[in-house]
Structure formats: structure tokens, C-alpha cells
Design goal:
This protein is α+β, with helices and mostly antiparallel strands. The chain has 9 helices and 16 strands. The strands form 3 sheets. A 6-stranded antiparallel barrel has the order 11-14-13-12-15-16. Strands 8-9-7-1-10 form a 5-stranded mixed sheet. The longest helix is centred in the N-terminal third of the chain and has 26 residues.
């Protein structure tokens, strides 16, 4: 009898979830089989509560060889030995230059001694999930440090393997190193709560667990921005962005207990003695004539606002002074920006008086093509997961410096 009750409850839950997904699909006129996920406007629809997307803007680099783990250990911000020993699932990480600036943000997946390719290699192997437009740049960076390391590098051809994101629903997959018939390649996306899973498949297959509605990379990017998660070179500017300002530390991509790696010195020094005064945050833009800023971060796919180009300065309305931040990228009325925390938000990092006030508004001013002047107001939002990860040490760094 109890089993029947549990079964009925589970069935009711599935029906409710299906109704929710159908309502979303109907509202946004979503056609799973034939459309890429765009609404009747030129902007992607809001992300469904449960869904999955093929990330067409990501590529994979395969590295294998008996020195592969040791080689990556000296180049990435995560402890490869610890990560691979404690769990065979993938993990988030980054590559830095010698000055401690971010070159690439990546996911790295162990591949069970390269068996995922059906080849008879007995060497450790890894797949590196990177911004597709800069995969060759990362391969060249890796090759620079190869020296006598016994490894083989190659960028995987488009269509051979795909990167997917899934979210919502119940997931029972045990991600790990994949071989024929073994567990799939992937990991939980721990960059922010609710980001779901990252899955890698071959031969055009969809993930084994594909919950909800299939949508587009663009719709996934809207969801990612709403969570305040930057990704790729358009948001984490290569050679300029600092890992802490890009939230790579908050997103679990840095092991501060790890030994030497390229770019470690500045990263560790900032962690122990510095205050991170700027961070990438989700933002919402609104018109100059709007009397009141938005109370909550909300994406509007019907907006018709023209957005500025990257690196546009953000300044206080009706005030002259130093920049309050820089715009990075956006979709519709939302985006990501590098913000001065104590200027654009209520976050306090030191005991000094904050520059922020709830009455302050901020704007971007730029010239569009043809020389026409444009202006938009902009408001930054601090995700709850950010607030939870602001450490007591950050708050006292300044007074102890």
C-alpha cells in the first residue's frame, strides 16, 4: 500500500512538472524539433525551469599521455591530483598567464586512460572544455610548456564530441571517466547553485538524462547570466581579467592550498593580503526616462533597447568621478558587468564608510554607429550565492594590511 502511495505521489510530481514545461513551451511558442529556441523576436525566450542545451560555443581539447596529469598540475588553478583522486567526475578550473591574469576558463574531464575514444591507450587522458573561438589559442598555450612531457594534444573536430548543459529535474547519473559501456563524461556544475550539470557526448547523441525542454545555447546563456556566472572570452577578458574579480574563486575554480602553477604568485597574494573591490555581477539595464530602477533582476525577451559594446564605462548619474564599473556583455535588458562593489552595491568589504546609497543610479553613455549619442541606466544585483561566499577574511583584509 505504501509503495502504491509513493508511486502515485511520484506520478503526480511528474505530471505537474510536465504541465509546467508544456506551459513554458506554449507561452514561448517553442518548437523542439525544428527551431533553435528563438521566440518571434530576435531575442531568445526565457530559459525553461527544466531543460538542456547543446553548447555550440564550446570546444574540446584532448590531452593524453603518461605525463598528462603532472603536466596539467603545473598549469591550472585546481589541484589535478586531488581532483582526480577524490572523484573521477569533471571539475571547473582556469589557465592563467605569468602575471596572474586569466587566459581561459575551462572544465576538465578525466577520460579513463583515453578509453572514451575506443583506442587502446593505457595513458591518463583529459578533455578540456573551452571557449570554441579560442580553442586553438589554448592548444598553442599548452604546447608552449610541453618541453619533454610525454603528452599528445589535439583539438577535437566539431561534431565528433559535444558539450551539453542540463538543469532541473532529478539526476541520478554517476559522472566519471568514460569508456565504452561505462559512466558518461561530465560533472555537476558547481559554479553557482542551480546551474545543473555539464555533460559530454559523442556521435551527436543527447545526454542520457535530458530533462524538460531542449533549448538553444543563447537561452542557456540567458540563464547563466541571470545566475551571475561569467564564461568565455567575451566576459572573462583574456590577459586582462583577474581570477578573483571574475569570481573564479567563488565558483570553485581555484585551490588556494595548491603548490606552484603558472600565475600562482599574484593569485595567492591577493587571496591572503588583498581586498577584491571589483567583481563580475549580473546587471539589468533600463531607460533613462524610467523613474524607478528595477527591484529584481528579470529578463524581458520583448525589449528593444540597444546595448553598448564591451568595456563601456559605468558612471553615477549626475555625478562626475571615477568609473563605477565596466559593461561586459548582455542579452536584451540583462547582462554582466565588472562592478565596484562598494560603489554599485550594498556590499561592504572594509570598516570604511561605504560609497553606496540606495538613491544612487548609474548609467552608460556611448556613441552608436553614425555618431548618435546613446544612454542607458544600469543596476547591479548581488546574487545570494555571492553574499554567502564573501568571507570574513575579505572584510578584514584592509585593516590588517
Amino acid at each position: 500500500m505504501l509503495k502504491r502511495i509513493h508511486a502515485l505521489r511520484h506520478a503526480d510530481g511528474c505530471v505537474d512538472k510536465e504541465r509546467e514545461e508544456n506551459a513554458w513551451a506554449q507561452k514561448h511558442k517553442f518548437k523542439k524539433a525544428t527551431e533553435a529556441g528563438l521566440s518571434h523576436s530576435s531575442l531568445p525566450p526565457p530559459p525553461p525551469p527544466t531543460g538542456f542545451a547543446r553548447l555550440t560555443n564550446r570546444a574540446l581539447i584532448h590531452i593524453r599521455g603518461q605525463d598528462a596529469a603532472h603536466y596539467l598540475q603545473g598549469l591550472t588553478t585546481v589541484n589535478i591530483s586531488t581532483a582526480t583522486a577524490s572523484s573521477q567526475s569533471g571539475f571547473y578550473s582556469s589557465f592563467l598567464n605569468a602575471q596572474g591574469r586569466v587566459l581561459h576558463d575551462v572544465f576538465i574531464y578525466p577520460t579513463s586512460h583515453s578509453q572514451c575514444f575506443g583506442e587502446k591507450y593505457d595513458d591518463p587522458g583529459f578533455l578540456i572544455d573551452v571557449d570554441k573561438a579560442h580553442a586553438e589559442t589554448l592548444r598553442a598555450h599548452l604546447k608552449r610548456f610541453k618541453l619533454r612531457a610525454k603528452i599528445v594534444l589535439r583539438v577535437i573536430d566539431t561534431g565528433e564530441w559535444d558539450v551539453w548543459a542540463t538543469w532541473g529535474g532529478e539526476h541520478t547519473t554517476n559522472y566519471g571517466s568514460s569508456g565504452p559501456g561505462s559512466e558518461p563524461i561530465g560533472c555537476m556544475d558547481t559554479r553557482a547553485p542551480g546551474m545543473g550539470q555539464r555533460v559530454v557526448t559523442d556521435d551527436g547523441r543527447k545526454p542520457t538524462e535530458s530533462p524538460g525542454v531542449e533549448t538553444s545555447t543563447e537561452t542557456y546563456d540567458v540563464r547563466r547570466m541571470l545566475h551571475g556566472v561569467p564564461q568565455g572570452h567575451s566576459e572573462i577578458i583574456a590577459g586582462e581579467a583577474l581570477p578573483q574579480e571574475s569570481n573564479i574563486d567563488y565558483m570553485g575554480g581555484i585551490d588556494f592550498r595548491k603548490g606552484c602553477y603558472v600565475g600562482q604568485e599574484l593569485t595567492i597574494r591577493t587571496h591572503h593580503t588583498g581586498v577584491v573591490r571589483k567583481r563580475i555581477l549580473p546587471v539589468q539595464v533600463y531607460r533613462m526616462e524610467d523613474e524607478k530602477p528595477p527591484d529584481t533582476l528579470q529578463y524581458d525577451p520583448e525589449t528593444s533597447m540597444e546595448l553598448p559594446g564591451a568595456a563601456q564605462n559605468i558612471a553615477r548619474v549626475n555625478t562626475r568621478g571615477r568609473s563605477a564599473g565596466k559593461w561586459l556583455t548582455g542579452v536584451g535588458n540583462i547582462g554582466l558587468a565588472l562592478c565596484r562593489l562598494e560603489t554599485m552595491t550594498d556590499v561592504r568589504l572594509t570598516e570604511e564608510a561605504s560609497q553606496w546609497s540606495p538613491e544612487h543610479e548609474f548609467k552608460m553613455s556611448w556613441q552608436a554607429e553614425g555618431g548618435e549619442g546613446k544612454e542607458l541606466k544600469i543596476k547591479a544585483f548581488v546574487p545570494e550565492w555571492h553574499r554567502n561566499r564573501i568571507s570574513v577574511r575579505d572584510m578584514h583584509h584592509q585593516q590588517n594590511a
